[in-house]
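Appendix C reproduces, verbatim, an entry submitted by the partner laboratory led by Prof. M.T., so that reviewers can inspect both the input and the predicted structure.
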Amino acid sequence: MCRNIRPLSNFEPPATQDEVQAAALQYVRKISGATHPSRANAEAFDRAVAEVATASARLLDALVTTAPPKDRAVEAEKARARAAVRYAR
């Protein structure tokens, strides 16, 4: 599950709310140990996802860097190259 959480800082264009929400969902899934909560835990699970997404968005807005923004296409190509090496048979 952790591999699905991608760095969202210092990209051009900036991370979307959907990307932040997806990262929050993956984080809550990981720490709760459940991909889908039971009905009894659904409210707490959804509330945790919302709170993590809010905190993550606040963090991304506050981060400052002097490095040039990363290009999403270039970073995706680097990830594909790493995966090709990792899974080469």
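Residues 7 and 78 are 13 Å apart (CA to CA). Additional entries are available on request from the coordinating office.
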